[in-house]
Structure formats: C-alpha cells, structure tokens
C-alpha cells in the first residue's frame, strides 16, 4: 500500500512540471514576448523584479517592442503592454463591452471588497464630476484659492525672511485634500483633521485591502473582507462624521425646497441631488465621496510635488513664471480666465506630468473577448492591457530631447497658429496619456489642472523656494507601475518680502 502511494506520488511529482509547462506553452499569452523570465514559477522572480525595477523593465520592453506588445509579470497575473500611436488608438477605440476600464479597475483594485460592492453598481459620481464639477470651475475658483491660502498659512510656518525646511510630499497632499474638500464637502469639514485623515488614508487602505485580497483564495475573500479590510472601518468612521451633515442638508431641502437660497454648491450636494428618491444611492453616498477623494488626492498631491521639485531644483524658472502670473493677475484679477491665460504655468505643469507622471501605464483595460490587434497580436479574453505611458512620454520621436525637462515646451508649441488648445495641460492625445485618452480619460482633470495651477501660482507669488542641495532634484521612486516623488525630500520655503 505504502509502495503504491510512493509510486503515485513520484508519478505526480514528475507529471506536475510537465503539465505546468504544457499549460504555459498552450496559453495564448505565451506568444507575447516577456520581459523577465516567463516560465511557470520563475515568473514570480520576474514579479519581484517588476515591483522594484519596473522602470528598467518597461524601458526594455518599449525599446524592443515599440509599436507592438510585450508583457510584464505581476504577482497574480500578466500585464500586456501596448505602445505606438496605432495600437494606443486601437485600444482607445474598443467599446466597453470588448475592453472594459471598469472591470479592469475592479480586478486590479478588487473594488468589490476594497471600496465595497456598492461602488461597482452605480457610478453616478462620474457624471457629477463631468457635468457639475467641470462646469462650476469658474464659480468655485475663489473658494479653492481661499482654501489654498488658509492651508498654506496653517501648514507652512515661516518667520520673517528666514528659510524654513518643509517635508513637502505629505504637506502637499494635505493642502490638496483641504482645497479639494472645500469643493467636496465645504467648511468646516475640509479643515476637520479627523475627516481629512480618513479621506487621505483611504487610498492606502484600498492598497492594503487589495494586497490582503490578492493573498486570499477567491472563495474565502467575502469572509476575509468582512473582518480584515481596513476600508470598512474608514467608511464607518467617515459616515459618523458626514451623516449629520447629510441629514442637515436633507432637512433644509425638505423645508425650503426651491427657495433654499443658501443651498451649497459642492460635490456632496450634487451627489445628494442625484441620489434623491433613490435609497441605494443615498445609502452609498459616503462610499462615493471617499471614491472621489481616492481619485483626487494622491494623484494631485503627487503631481504638484513633482512640479514643485523642478521649481526648487532649477530656481531660474521662478522668475518667468512669476512674471507671467503677476502680469495676468494685474490685468484679469484672480479668475478662471486668468488661469487659462497663464500658458507658461500650464506648460510647466504639463511638462512635469510628461517627464514624471503618477503612473508608468495608462488606458487600463480588461479584454472581455479575444482581441486581435493590427500588429498581429492575439490577446485572450481575461487579459489586462495597458499603454506604456512613461515610455511614450520619453520617446524622442514624439518629443525632441524627450529626456530634458523643458518647462516651456508646450507654451512654445501653443504659439504656433492653430495649436492654441492642442497643447494645453488638460488635452489628451495618443502622445500624451497622463490623464488617459478617450472615453475614460480622467473626468477630474479640469478641476485638477485648475487646483494645481492655483497652488503653484500661490507658491510663486508668496514664497521663494529651493533645495538645500541647490540644483539637485531628488529621484522619483517607482513601485511597480506607480511613480512617486521622493517622499523624504525637503524643500526650503521663504516668505517673499513684498
Ligand atoms: C493630477 C491629477 C490626476 C491624474 C494624473 C489623474 C489620472 C487619471 C487616469 C490616468 C485615469 C484613467 C484613464 C484611463 O485609464 O483611460 C483617471 C480616471 C479617473 N479620474 Fe483622474 N486623475 C487626476 C485627478 C482626478 C480628480 C481630481 C478626480 C475627481 C475630482 C478624478 C476622477 C477620476 C475618475 C472618476 C476616473 C474614472 C473615469 C471613468 O471611470 O471613466 N481624477 N484619472
């Protein structure tokens, strides 16, 4: 009996690698070139490498396979990367029922467990961002600016003409969180430390929850999620803070109806209006609010920090930018029209996003059916596809001297007749995909661009900035596909003496 068992065990042990190899060879993804090892089990070594050295692996793939596809390993799946104008355009054109952004996000972030199933059902916040937030930018700008000023005064303490060293990334994230939440929930909540902490930490909670879910077998996920997903607590605590505000607004709406003259013009009110008479939307308001914070805070906080590092490293950019801001403000006052006229500032932000960005990939899609790309690549249903954003942005074919940070690259291009809007910060194209491109391009980018330019303009008008080690911009950190400005760097701030 024992002999038979050992015999069977030996057969099983010998057969397992053969079966694994056969499955690997039969998998249609096998035909897509791999960066790093692709054989079964060895691909985990590749996944470790990708976690720490994504920049080099993406560069290698782009150099070898530009205009086609390659794949890189994550711990639980392959990521198929497409590049070149033709394929990016092809990916953009696929309808949602063939290549889905929503389901790709669901898979990569385990949204059902991290945000909660309600976040998948009814994404009415996207239309609210598109329709209400973007159309109210001009009206809301004074509030954003007021909050920026309040936040800088509160968080960056300078004395006379002394230089103060500021640990920039966490401070910029806080300022963005306050300025954004001035428009999401208004005063005093946008200054409430407990609420801000929850809104800021929600992103890390989602990341942690995602790691926990990826380590859990699918069958056990619903149970593990119930007890170990940190977002559940964050949502509960946020509900505790925001529910009285929601109830107060519902009461005012009932009592005053169309005569409610002081009706707030903010994200929470727009979401409430959209949820009126819809119980499930009302129940999910806080999830939606946190979802908007997730999309807005770290993306914008990292972006303004990237730009500020360039300013502090190359202080000769300060004068032309400051001159532009001062001249436009003197003529126009602090309006949205004024921000639009600041071409150099807009160009500076766009160039910073081009050479840094917040992610090395964009246009994330899940193939819902087999896709056949024009270069002959066959992508099987169930595959996650992305575009090589950073490498596209660093390609000399699209951007002369692409590796150079040329702050006024885009404002110079805009001076050519007919090119005025094409090179704005918010314009997307197959060559500029920091905000995605096409149907799912970031709907919050108009708000983000306004807020970030208002923050930079505020810094230019009110502070001198520099690095302690002058002229040296700290290296960005790459963690898998995420790109983060050095989280430890400090910038020196000195209040300008008017
Ligand atoms: C500098 C800041 C930002 C960056 C770099 C950024 C970037 C992006 C990117 C790359 C996408 C995915 C596009 C795609 O794969 O096709 C996206 C989607 C999205 N962003 Fe942003 N974003 C920023 C700020 C914001 C803000 C402030 C909001 C909200 C107020 C927002 C809300 C969203 C939403 C809701 C989506 C999903 C769109 C959809 O489902 O169709 N983002 N963003």
From TrEMBL:
Gene3D superfamilies: Cytochrome P450. Heme binds at residue 442. Keywords: Heme, Iron, Membrane, Metal-binding, Monooxygenase, Oxidoreductase, Transmembrane, Transmembrane helix. Its cofactor is heme. The chain crosses the membrane at residues 6-25. SUPFAM superfamilies: Cytochrome P450. InterPro entries: Cyt_P450, Cyt_P450_CS, Cyt_P450_E_grp-IV, Cyt_P450_sf. GO terms for molecular function: heme binding; iron ion binding; monooxygenase activity; oxidoreductase activity, acting on paired donors, with incorporation or reduction of molecular oxygen. Belongs to the cytochrome P450 family. This is Cytochrome P450.
């Amino acid at each position: 009996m024992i002999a038979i068992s050992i015999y069977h065990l030996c057969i099983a042990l010998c057969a397992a690698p053969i079966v694994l190899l056969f499955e690997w060879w039969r998998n249609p993804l096998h035909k897509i070139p791999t960066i790093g090892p692709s054989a079964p089990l060895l691909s985990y070594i590749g996944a470790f490498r990708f976690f720490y050295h994504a920049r080099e692996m993406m560069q290698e793939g782009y150099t070898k396979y530009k205009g086609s596809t390659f794949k890189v390993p994550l711990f639980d799946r392959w990521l198929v990367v497409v590049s070149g104008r033709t394929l990016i355009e092809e990916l953009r054109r696929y309808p949602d029922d063939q290549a889905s952004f929503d389901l790709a996000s669901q898979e990569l972030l385990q949204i059902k467990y991290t945000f909660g199933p309600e976040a998948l059902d009814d994404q009415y916040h996207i239309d609210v961002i598109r329709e209400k937030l973007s159309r109210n930018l001009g009206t809301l700008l004074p509030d954003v600016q007021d909050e920026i000023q309040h936040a800088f005064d509160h968080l960056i303490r300078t004395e006379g003409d002394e230089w103060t060293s500021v640990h920039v990334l966490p401070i910029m994230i806080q300022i963005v969180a306050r300025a954004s939440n001035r428009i999401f929930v208004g005063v005093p909540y946008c200054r409430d430390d407990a609420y801000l902490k929850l809104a800021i930490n929600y992103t890390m909670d989602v990341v942690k929850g995602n790691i926990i879910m990826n380590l859990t077998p699918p069958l056990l996920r619903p149970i593990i999620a119930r007890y170990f997903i940190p977002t559940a607590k964050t949502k509960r605590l946020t509900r505790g803070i925001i529910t009285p505000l929601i109830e107060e607004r519902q009461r005012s709406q009932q009592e005053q109806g169309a005569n409610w003259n002081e009706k707030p013009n903010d994200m929470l009110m727009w979401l409430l209006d959209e949820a009126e008479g819809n119980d499930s939307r009302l129940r999910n308001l806080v999830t939606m609010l946190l979802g908007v914070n997730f999309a807005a805070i770290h993306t914008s906080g990292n972006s303004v920090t990237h730009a500020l590092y360039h300013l502090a490293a190359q202080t000769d950019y300060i004068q032309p930018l400051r001159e532009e801001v001062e001249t436009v403000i003197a003529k126009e006052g602090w309006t949205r029209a004024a921000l639009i006229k600041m071409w150099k500032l807009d160009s500076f932000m766009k160039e910073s996003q081009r050479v840094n960005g917040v992610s090395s990939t964009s246009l994330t899609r899940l193939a819902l059916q087999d896709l056949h790309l024009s270069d002959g690549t066959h992508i099987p249903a169930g595959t996650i596809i992305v575009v090589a954003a950073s490498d596209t942005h660093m390609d000399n074919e699209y951007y002369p001297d692409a590796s150079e940070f040329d702050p006024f690259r885009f404002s110079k291009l805009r001076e050519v007749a007919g090119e005025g809007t094409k090179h704005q910060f918010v314009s997307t194209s197959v060559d500029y995909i920091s905000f995605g491109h096409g149907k799912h391009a970031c709907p919050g980018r108009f708000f983000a661009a306004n807020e970030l330019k208002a923050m930079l303009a505020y810094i230019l008008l009110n502070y001198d900035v520099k690095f302690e080690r002058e002229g040296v911009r700290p290296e960005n950190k790459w963690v898998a596909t995420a790109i983060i400005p050095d989280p430890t760097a400090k910038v020196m701030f000195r209040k300008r003496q008017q």
